[in-house]
Structure formats: C-alpha cells, structure tokens
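Problem statement: downstream parser choked on a complex file, so we are re-checking the raw output for the nicotinamide-adenine-dinucleotide run. The parser issue turned out to be on our end (a line-ending mismatch), but while we're here, posting the original submission so the record is complete.
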Amino acid sequence: MTYKIAILPGDGIGPEVIAEAVKVLERLRSAFGVRLELQSAPVGGAAYDAHKHPLPEPTLRLVKQADAVLLGAVGGSRWDSLPRELRPEKGLLTIRAELKLFANLRPAMLFPQLANAAALKPEAISGLDLLIVRELTGDIYFGKPRGIRRLENGERQGYDTMLYAEHEIERVARVAFEAARKRRKQVCSVDKANVLETSGLWREVVTRVAEEYPDVALSHMYVDNAAMQLVRAPKQFDVMLTGNMFGDILSDEASMLTGSIGMLPSASLDAHDKGMYEPIHGSAPDIAGRRLANPLAMILSAAMMFRYSFNELALADRIERAVVTVLDQGLRTSDIHTAGTKKVNTAEMGDAVVKALE
Ligand code: NAD
C-alpha cells in the first residue's frame, strides 16, 4: 500500500513548518520502508500570486486524488484587500467543502515538559489530554437565509440561521464516540439546549447515537458552563463534542491550556477517514522567514494523519514519541523557550525530531 499525500505549504511560516514535516516523512520512507508518495501544490496567497486563484484547478485535482492532505497555513495582510472569493482562506474553505470534511478533531494535550509555559497553574493542567470533535460544515456559519435587511423603520438588521439536520448531527456524533473508544471512553456533548431549538434536536440525536456505544459514557453540558469548566477543571474532559460555532470558540480556548499554539495539530475528516491535517496556528506573518516557527504542531499533524487516515498507529506513536524525546532533550523553539532549556531554530527542531525517530 502506497499512501498518496498532497503537500500544501501555503503562506507565511506554512512552507517553513511543512518542510520539517516532510523531512520526517522522508525519513520514514528511507529508514523504515513506509511507502509514501508526496506531491506539492500551491494554495492560499502563494497560489494567488502564481495563478491568480487561491485554489488553482491542479491543486484541487491533487487533493481529490490524494489519500490525505497536509497543509501548512494560509493568509496574510497582503491579500486582505482582495475580493472574498480570491482571498487565501477561500482556498481552505473550498477544500473543506469539496472533500466534505465535516469533522474537525483538535487534541489539546499538555506535554509535561511544557507545564510551566502554559497559562494555567501546572496542577490544573498536568496530564491534560482532551480531544475536541467539532462539526465543520453546518450550523449558523452556513445556514440560509442570512444577510442584512432593511426594516420598516429604515434601520438595518443582520440575521443568520442556525441549522442542523439529524444526519449531520449523527455522523459527527459517531466520530466522537469512535474516537472515545480509542481513549478514556467519555463523551461530553456541548449545546445550548435550554435556549436553542437546534440544540434540543442536537441533544436528542446525540443521546440516540450513544445507545450504539454502551461502553462510552455520555454527558451533556451547556456551552457557557463548558467555557468555564475548560479553564476551571479541564482534566474532567476526554472527548468534547460540539457544533461548528461553539467548537470554534471552545477549541481556541482549549489551545491556551497547553502552552503554545505552535504545539497543536488538527485533523478534518470525511465519512471515509480521508482527511486534511494542519496545525491550528495561522501563517504567523510576524515571524515568517526568521527561522523562529515551531514545527512541532505540523509534525504532530502528520502523526494524526497516520493515526486517523491510514490507521498506522505504530507510526503515529513513533512520531509522537520522537517529539517527546526532543522536549526531554530540552530543545525549544523561541515560543516555548524557558530558562534552562536550549533554544533552537525551526530546522534544528525538525532535524532533532528526525533523529529521534530511531
Ligand atoms: P497566527 O496563528 O498566525 O499567529 C498568532 C501568534 O502566534 C503570532 O504571534 C505568531 O507569531 C504565533 N505563532 C503562530 N504559530 C506559531 C508557531 N508555529 N511557532 C511560533 N509562534 C507561532 O494567527 P494570526 O496572527 O491571527 O493570523 C495570521 C494569518 O494567518 C492571518 O492571515 C489569518 O487569517 C491566518 N490564519 C490562517 C489559519 C489557517 O491557515 N488555518 C488559521 C488561523 C489564521
């Protein structure tokens, strides 16, 4: 079996961090005989500069043919004045829609070596290991009608529509329950069922799906409470299941529990475990080109690809263990650097991970 991987570097630090992930993949190929076919293509602002479009046709063809997609990051102020259809983010959104990537998986894991670099007290977060499963293609972000209309009194009114059909709730709930089975077997579903009709249906459908997973414990929590519990006692969570908007907010909140945005990977999956894997951070124009970017979120995204799309759990473990090893060695990029550790640049960090694969 040869895995075909589309490599989309993107903008800003995207190309810098993806180069380090590619080093890891190439070592897996040369030293461990893993059969990988890597092919690169432009996306985002870089694609606009070269082809006047953030997702040129050949790039779309490549991601459709691939078994999985690795993406760096897109965006930058240079392209912010373009029409919405041509902005870098549009390239990403189109890939998500075309590949029908409806489930977004975001682990928030604290590496014990980084407990001092995080925002909360070490005792609140040591051992933290939670996974947010966020629905990605529905909800108020896509619901119609939406717009800005003129009221009778002449005032303007903005409106959006929160929508979830049963099948959309069911399929993302299944992703959460399946993921929980590989972890501590708890799902906490987040909604606002005390106020929203959509959430009432969400809760009903999730409860029904849970009957198929008697080995997994299901609980429900209102989103406002969930936001509070995430900073009060985050270790109570194993898998957190949310709709698109609530998950957007809670997953960013959760990222701050773990030290640096430069450490957190993500996966977006379709119904057949094909996925796009990317760090949660953006293109970081403030540090681009200065060899400061932390490549570990990107490398950990590649590990997720082996786990979720290829079911190669041993390879995923091997990459994650290599990351733990370099942290144990005291190597830190400047975003996670603290007294007593050794500061390294982007490529030095990548090289150290490659070496630690053995
Ligand atoms: P950002 O995540 O790019 O950066 C936020 C801060 O974190 C910056 O100070 C940056 O230097 C730092 N940072 C981010 N990644 C880092 C890493 N790997 N190592 C060390 N430090 C890191 O968010 P932003 O500044 O709000 O956005 C910049 C651009 O990225 C914007 O154009 C935005 O639209 C885009 N963006 C893209 C994605 C994506 O491609 N999925 C996600 C978020 C933002």
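For whoever reads this later: Residues 129-256 form a domain with the Isopropylmalate Dehydrogenase fold (CATH 3.40.718.10).
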